[in-house]
Amino acid sequence: MKSLVRWGATLGLVGSTFFLSVVGISLPVQALSEQQIKDKLDSVPVYLITNDKGLPLSRNLPDGQNGQKGGSVTGVYMSRQEALAFIKELRNAKNKDPKLEDMAKKLQVTAVPLGVIYQQLQQSKNQPNRLLFAFKPVDQELKGALDLLRASGQKIDQFKSVPVFAVRFAPDKGYVPIQLGAEKQQTIPLFLSKQDAQGLLNQVKPKFPTADIQVIDVDGVIKTLKDKNDSWLNQVVLVPSPESREYIRTLPKDNAPKPKSLPSKQP
């Protein structure tokens, strides 16, 4: 996937100390295009369980579920290790029938950019029997999100989406930007890992004691990118988790295959 090549550029974001900048940049106010939204989402790898033909493992949905006629749903893991653990569990399951056992041997984990999932959903939203995606957040990040929300006074029992962590100068102030690369490009990082957000917060706190971490969710991020015309959205960068960044480092940078539309049929 060509987007895998672009993933490498994100590594510099958290590979060294963050450089803080509080100087605002005046940008023209214009809504982001669908391609710009996809490009931002492409920085994050997600993981599908697929068979030897590259088709995602999915299950059929009864008519009327999720407001659509028929169709199927497949799991989208935010952690490659958790996806691999699921395959291992299937292979080690006892009392399997021969067909299930043969299928489990052929399963693999396939990484795709989050932007490809978003594009697929956009293109198929009015189609019957389409493939839906059930996101599976990392348990540790869910716990981190709930801890932060409860610490802020919110009474909440569960978090129903993929948590995203943003560092603010204060609860009523803007997001903390950082500078990237030799050109010191100013960006606003949205982290998929509480650990990364905490690292930036630790640097900000001595100068801005009221700084904190805001918990949002990936659905809210996408909706904001789609609906708002605020200039700062041009600066937003989604930062993959440490686990995903480590995986990205293992990928070839020049020979990554191009992304394809995901199939809508189950294997």
UniProtKB/TrEMBL annotation:
Ranges of Basic and acidic residues composition bias in the record: 248-257
GO BP annotations, alphabetical order: protein transport
Stretches the record annotates as Disordered: 248-267
Superkingdom: Bacteria
Protein name: Tic22 family protein
PANTHER family named among the record's database cross-references: PROTEIN TIC 22, CHLOROPLASTIC
Organism the protein comes from: Trichormus variabilis SAG 1403-4b
InterPro entries in UniProt: Tic22-like (IPR007378)
